């Protein structure tokens, strides 16, 4: 049985490749916008083409078609928003709003005793909801999920004033800085928090110690998570 200290949440969640890919279409958008006389249309075409290329590469890698299609559609939607409003900074609006929604969703999941980190990891490991019947693991996932809330709040705090001030160059630059580097940091921090929050004798997140669900909820409630 694997000890939690030997487990790597980062190895399970990954994230660098997808987050890096997500930062490329905004760069293509700004590059197209600059190269063609501040044309939002040119920037939109460049971003969509970049998104399509990334989608094809992901598909060739064997990733699920649904994920590939969603990735391309998000780029198209961002480009359409910018074209509709005529404001180049609005290309980043969907990403800004998605971070607001993500912060609220993760914080809300903790409040209702369904921390999204547990949902994601439990799904990846095929545990379904067994992790919720482990009071220690439920509490640990609640603690570790705050790292993800912090990640999204940080992005909102940084991007909002830049978007309001139409700082397109900084929006594109910080989109990279706050994509895969922040994603990796978040995964590492949440993994550390998860390990710290679990009792020393717990076998790890791959091995939930199931008990009565009401007792698990009660235990999580007593911790204030």
* Straight-line distance between termini: 28 Å
Q: Estimate the helix proportion, in percent.
A: over 70%
Number of strands: 0
> How confident is the prediction overall: mean pLDDT?
84
User: What's the shape?
Assistant: elongated
Helix- and strand-based class?
Answer: mainly alpha
Please give a structural write-up:
Residues 205-225 are annotated as: Disordered. It comes from Lentzea albidocapillata. InterPro entries: UCP010219. The protein has helices at residues 9-13, 16-35, 40-60, 65-85, 93-111, 116-124, 135-164, 168-177, 180-197, 213-222. The protein is an all-alpha fold and 225 residues long. The chain has one domain. The longest helix has 30 residues, at 135-164. Mean pLDDT is 84; it is low at 1-7.
Describe this structure in a few short sentences.
The protein is mainly α. It has helices spanning 9-13, 16-35, 40-60, 65-85, 93-111, 116-124, 135-164, 168-177, 180-197, 213-222.
């Amino acid at each position: 049985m694997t000890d939690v200290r030997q487990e790597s949440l980062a190895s399970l969640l990954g994230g660098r490749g997808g987050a890096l890919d997500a930062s490329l279409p905004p760069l293509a958008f700004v590059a197209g916008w600059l190269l063609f006389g501040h044309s939002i249309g040119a920037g939109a075409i460049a971003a969509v083409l970049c998104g399509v290329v990334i989608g094809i590469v992901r598909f060739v890698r064997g990733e699920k078609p649904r994920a590939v299609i969603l990735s391309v559609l998000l780029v198209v939607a961002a480009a359409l928003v910018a074209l509709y409003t005529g404001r180049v900074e609005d290309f980043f609006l969907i990403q800004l709003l998605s971070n607001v929604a993500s912060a609220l969703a993760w914080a809300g999941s903790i409040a209702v005793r369904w921390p999204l980190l547990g949902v994601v990891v439990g799904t990846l490991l095929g545990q379904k909801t067994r992790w919720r019947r482990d009071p220690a693991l439920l509490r640990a996932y609640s603690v570790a999920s705050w790292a993800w809330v912090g990640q999204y709040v940080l992005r909102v705090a940084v991007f909002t004033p830049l978007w309001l001030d139409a700082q397109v160059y900084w929006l594109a630059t910080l989109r990279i800085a706050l994509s895969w580097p922040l994603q990796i940091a978040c995964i590492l921090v949440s993994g550390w928090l998860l390990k710290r929050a679990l009792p020393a004798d717990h076998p790890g997140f791959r091995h939930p110690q199931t008990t009565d669900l009401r007792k698990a909820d009660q235990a999580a409630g007593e911790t204030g998570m």
